[in-house]
Each structure stands twice: as structure tokens, then as C-alpha cells.
Amino acid sequence: MNRHQDPRYRTNKRYTLLTGATGLVGRYLMRDLLLKGHQLAVLVRPTKQELARERIETILQMWEEELGHRLPRPVLLTGDVTQANLGLSPKQFRWAKNYLDQMIHGAAVLKFSGATPDDDPWKTNLGGTANVLDFSRLCDISHFHYISTAYVCGKRDATVYEDDLDVNQEFRNDYEISKFQAEQMVRESDCFKTKTVYRPAVIVGDSKTGYTSTYHGLFLYLRLMAMLIPEQSRNAEGVFETPISIPLEGDEPRNVVPVDWVAKTICHLVCTPEAHGRTYHLVPDKCTTAREVIEYCYEYFHSSGVKFCGRGKERTGDNELAQQLFENTSIYASYETSDPHFDKSNVNKFAGHLVCPPLDKDMVFQFIDFGKENRWGKVKPKTPKVARWIETHLTEIALAAQKTMGVLRINGVNRLLKFGLDIHGPGGGQWQLAVNDGKFEVTPGLPDDSSPILKLSDIQINDLLLRNDESEVTHKDASAVSIDWAAPLESVMAKKSESDS
Fold first, then answer.
1. Where in the chain is the domain with CATH 3.30.1050?
2. pLDDT in tens, 327-352
3. What's the pTM?
4. Architecture of domain 390-500 in CATH?
5. Dist CA 10 CA 160 (whole Å)
6. Can you say whether the dihedral through the CA atoms of 33, 34, 40, 42 is positive or negative?
7. In whole angstroms, what is the distance from residue 58 CA to residue 61 CA?
8. CATH 3.40.50.720 domain span(s) along the chain
9. Topology classification of domain 7-377
């Protein structure tokens, strides 16, 4: 019997580690997994402006404002996929080895060219994936989920099937090559029970709100139109004239998918064990065309004048508007005339009920409205508001628990006081606390089902801590710290005693 088959070895391995949680897809995937009650850990790199925990808190508070309720906090691992062992401290690495069962690797860089292997996209997309695979092997992770891209297909005219990878295709840029080689490494790895690959097409904003955190692809075109069209002259009917000749037929299909659908579909497949071990093309049921997007923009901006002059001609403009548009979007020129048909049999089989919303007029309008409101990425996210970071009060909570409960007795036997602390909302998190005769141990993550879990919101825990602070000031007695914990702790311990009887 190997480790993957030994249930004793895998008792604590219940957590999934997500890389790329601060990216566009990652922040949606983090939200959806938490909403499903998934026991989640995230790998986050600090920036010069924000600590890792602040970056995650900013994102989660954005979701809480939209959802109208508090979310649990994932276990936070501070690190970087471009470093060995993901840059984790020895303590964090030990935790990962003991608690991680699944990996969702979504960290990537959308950069089309890199001069050396030390530059992106190679550094993150290829080197980062190699580090993640090495880390997963060392941590004995069972299930590996890799977020690739549909464009590992390169330039293809024939239908691209989900099991296709290396068919001697030609690539457009270093990004495609880096993702292709990374997916090859994933497929060749032999240390997992299952390996699942997700290949999204061109990802755009939220189908319902228009939200995006990045302004690539379609959003770049929309931003340019929003900036340039109002500068053009109007004709007698008051319509902005946009004399641009585009070297396309106009009806070439485009595989565009909204980020909320991509994340929801990945989340469903991750949470469906029988779906593991396959490759999934996350592509639309109905493609869009450049002509459709132009016509939507005509209506939004009250403009007209674009002509489709047929494929094969160069992207050259005979006016300032065309020149600015073509110069700023030249990086995407190779994608304008070629987008293959992707088979999605696996998606239809295991997630066919999750219908991909088509890119219609309402969605494009939402994208433009959001972009203008967000000043096309210039509006900074709100600074997270945190009354207390609960992790700085864990010692206080552990001691209060022991003073409140003493030694736990079940069926006349003294037992170690051990419980989980699951704090939802700003500054919250998940921990397990073990207390015995004044000695305590704090471990990230929740305990297994045999230990009780104390679930509180940040408001409830902050109220308890505030009353404890006031009690200490009033009584000058450290023992007073336990007085306010009696009700919640006795309640959860009583349920534990009943279940064990």
C-alpha cells in the first residue's frame, strides 16, 4: 500500500492550494470555492505596496460587498511560484506537506515575448509550473489541476480536440509556447492520482457586472474606442464618423468567454471527483464576430464608419484614428484572422448544465460602463478595513478557552481541549487550537470532523475581544479574560460531548 492508498496517512490532507488567487480568474475561483465550503489555502506574493494578507483581504472584501454577507478566509501561504518550494518558510512548508491534498495551479503571466528564460512569460509560466510540480511531489499531493489556455493549439485550422496537444503546430508568440511546454510538463508528471487540465479561450469580464481587473484583449479595444471616438467629428445626423478599414471579412468567429463562467465551471469540475483526469476546453457555445462587436459599439457610442475590406491586407490606417487603433493593438494582429473550432465534449458531459453566456450587446455595454467607471484600471481598489487581525489574538483566545473549559471530560475521561476557530469576515481565518495545562499549540486550518469548530463572524469575535480588553482594564486580573468566552465555547463543546456519547 502506497501513501495515496493509506487512509491513516491522509487523515489531515483536506486542503486545496490555489496559486494565482489575485489574478482575474483566481479571484473568482477563490470566491466560488469558498462559497462551496471548500477548505482552501492560497499562495500569495506580497508587493511593495501590500502584504500578502492585505492583497487577499482586499479581494474578499470586494466580494463581501457584492454578495452582502461575510466569507470564510482561506489559509494564507506567503510565497512565489518562481522560487524553489514556492518560497515558503520551513514552517509553512511543513504545514503544506501535512495538509494539502489538491493543487490548482493558475498563476501565469500574459506576456507575448521574453528575451531569456529568466524573463516572463518563461519565468512564471514555465519555470513556475516546474516549481509547482516539484513542490506537489514533495508534498505528496494527490490531485493536480492546471489552468492552461486553449491557445496551446497554436495556429490551427482543423477542429482542436480536448486530448490534442503536440501536433507539430506553429505558434504565434512566446506566451503560447510557454503554456504549451508547461502543459507538456504537467502531462508527463507521474506523481499524482489525477491530473486535470482546463483550457479557457479568450477571457473577458464578468457577464453580469462587467467587472475586470485587467485590461487586455477585448477591453483594450473597448478602451481605445471609448477614448478615440468622442474626439472624432460628427456628421449631419450627429453620428461620430470613424473611417477605419479593417483587413477582415468581419464574420470570422471569436472564442470569447466571461470570467465568471470560466471560474464557475472550473469550480464545479474541481468539486466533481469523477470529472478529474481529463482536459476541458472552456470555450463558448456560440462564437462572436468582430462585426457584432463593432455594431454594438456603433449603438453605444452613436458612431459609424468601419469597413471590412477583406482578409490578406495589411493593418495600415490612412487617418489618425486608424493609425492609433492599429498601433495600440498590433500585438493582437495575429489573432484577428485565425481562431479554430474547439471541441468541448468533456465540458458538455460533466458541466453541460453551466451554459456559457454569449457575448451580446448587453454584455459589451456592461464592459464599457465598467471600464469608464473604473477609468480603465486607474481607480485603485479600496483599502481593506480590518478592526483586528485575529491571528494576532490566537494566544489570548487559546488561554481564554482553557480557563473557561478547564480539562474537557467526556465519559469520565480527561481529554485535551482542541477545537477549530473559523472566523468569517475582515481579519478572519481558520485555525485549530490545542490547549493542555497552560501549554497551547496553534495550527493553520481547521481540524478534522472529530474536533468541534467554533464559527464566529469578525463582529462577534471582535466584540468578545473588546469586552475582554475592557474587563482586563476594569479588574486588573488576567483571569477575567475568560469570562466572555463561556457561552460560545460551552455551546460547541456540549455538541461535541453529545456526538461522542
1. 390-500
2. 888 889 888 887 899 999 999 999 99
3. 0.91
4. 2-Layer Sandwich (3.30)
5. 38
6. positive
7. 5
8. 7-377
9. Rossmann fold (3.40.50)
